[in-house]
Amino acid sequence: MASLLESIASPQDLRRLPRQQLAQLADELRAYVLDSVSRTGGHLSSNLGTVELTIALHYVFNTPHDRLVWDVGHQTYPHKILTGRRERMATLRQLGGLSGFPMRSESEYDAFGTAHSSTSIAAALGMAVAAKRKGDDRRAVAIIGDGAMSAGMAFEGLNNAGVSDCDLLVVLNDNDMSISPPVGALNRYLAQLMSGRFYAAAKNVGKNVLKVAPPLFELAKRLEEHAKGMVVPGTLFEEFGFNYIGPIDGHDLDSLVPTLENIRALRGPQFLHVVTKKGQGYKLAEADPVAYHGPGKFDPLVGLAPAKPGKPTFTQVFGSWLCDMAERDDRLVGITPAMREGSGMVEFEKRFPDRYFDVGIAEQHAVTFAAGMACDGLKPVVAIYSTFLQRAYDQLIHDVALQNLPVVFALDRAGIVGADGATHAGVFDVPFVRCIPNMSLACPADEAECRALLSTAFAQDHPVAVRYPRGAGAGVAVPASLEALPFGKGELRREGRGIAILAFGTLLYAALEAAGPLDATVVNMRWAKPLDLSLLLEVAQRHEAIVTVEEGAVMGGAGSAVAEALHAAGLARPLLQIGVPDAFTTHGDPARLLALLGLDAAGIERAVRARFGNLAAPAPAPGLKVVG
User: Which is catalytic among the residues 67, 93, 278, 609?
Assistant: First the structure.
């Protein structure tokens, strides 16, 4: 049988197919997604679940004229394949290759760039309003998952859209599965409606009527669960001003295509509820969609290989510390905005279920929720990715810092994150945290220091953030103790001459490697705020030039803090700040990205020699190895 997928170079080709061939195309597309992701790594379960929905949307809507706005975007691999990027899927999430998320600069079919949750409805509404204002006959479609519907921003968009009188379609891709299992009141809302007096009364009337015809009564009993889902969910969304349709089977093209065709002819806000299954068509992913959410390379015939023991990751170090500190202090509570697995809280949930709180994809709520707990004597630890804390910045300032509440923020994925790219890079936390009064920020250099600084943070009576990167670090053995390090104090790690390198975080080890041939002093600063002023000034007075090194934004970062401190002390020294420049970082292998940014040992040495060559030790002759 000839391959249909190979004949699809754009959605225009797709729309020329007879409808009866779409099922074959779906099978081929699903197989291609599975094969492609097994070779490159990436998001799998979510993409297998959106194959038919993607085909139907591009088949019915005139893309790119009609706008498809994907929420989060980790379910858009079928979309990429159908929109002319099939041959480039081998480069997915690699340096110079395709992004793992929609990106406007990558394709005209990517109507809105995204990788954070719950933005689709607002963005699509903006496009619908623009079309109305300009008199354009185009449709805007937001495709949002049920996990993303737990965020307030999604409901803000619904609330605005319902009174907009714009031609907007919201497609709820209901797979009952975000990255972590969905939580919160939205699912319970339906259960409460169904258990309410009106529903119970209607059900009792139906029973009394149908009992006179036993076969019908038995049929009704068997269909009851399905009937509830087909009738009740629309209540919520129709209250927002939408015309609710569904739920329908999101894998049934014979249902999807005609339904979408009918909706395209309707005017005003429309809401289509489709039910899909994560991992659809690949039994291993269907059985464990969490494990197959974002796998690395694997053999599809065998499945994921068991994880090989290796150096503990910073995430694992945090998870272990959280459990150990919870054993010691029953005031500790752990909070995550729907990132149980990613933040290393699986074991904590098992051991301390009554002290574990997954608030759903609701970062703003997570921070203020922690603030309320702290007001009444608990010690909240908010485990959140650096890039996701950006979404709760007002709450960080207004609800936590302004009231000086003792909340610990464990900032995972700080610095360069690799394949996920600019949307997930945690490079802005130092600038945006250190400018907030009452906040402190620790930058551990390795795994052992991470555990100790978490203990230091937990012991404080004001808000403290501890930032650490994705993956493993230098491999320093992690002690079992909960001993803390001195608050706001750094350490001298190498004594040299002429130049002093002040390292913040895990780049300490690259700085130490660069310092050998430079014969430079190296200081492990540990804290971006407060700076260890006594150590900083003592080192500055003994050296002719200062270099700061950080895996974060240079503008407003730790190097800026050093410049401010030296200026305030009236101590003039030439200062070189090495870090992430004023540009968004692309996706790719983390080590290669660090090298391209000049944040590896060779890059640090090169930058120092270029700026202070007369102060550094002579470069070694080729072939000679210098031991620092």
Answer: 278
Report if pTM > 0.90: no
pLDDT tops 80 at residue 198: no
308, two tokens = 């090989």
For residues 528 and 548, the answer to whether their CB atoms sit within 8 Å is: no
Active site residue 391: yes
Report residue 117: phi and psi, to 5°: -80, 150
Q: How far apart are CA 237 and CA 245, in angstroms?
A: 10
75: its two tokens: 């379910």
pLDDT by residue (tens digit) across 578-600?
Answer: 999 999 999 999 999 999 999 99
* Alpha-carbon gap, residue 96 to 393, rounded angstroms: 32
CA nearest to 58, candidates 36, 82, 35, 37: 82
Distances from the Cα of 548 to the Cα of 123, 259, 559, angstroms? 39, 59, 5
Decide if 445 contacts 508 (C-beta within 8 A).
Answer: yes
At CA 94, angle to CA 93 and CA 96, rounded to 5?
115
Contact residues for 389 (Cβ-Cβ < 8 A; gap 6+): 363, 367, 396, 409, 411, 429, 465
Does residue 64 contact residue 108 with C-beta atoms inside 8 Å?
A: yes
**How do residues 293-344 score in pLDDT, each as one tens digit?**
989 999 999 999 887 778 899 999 999 999 999 999 999 999 999 999 999 9
Annotation marks residue 278 as catalytic: yes
207 is catalytic: no
Catalytic residue among 391, 467, 526, 529: 391
User: Do residues 546 and 575 lie in contact, with contact meaning Cβ atoms separated by under 8 Å?
Assistant: yes
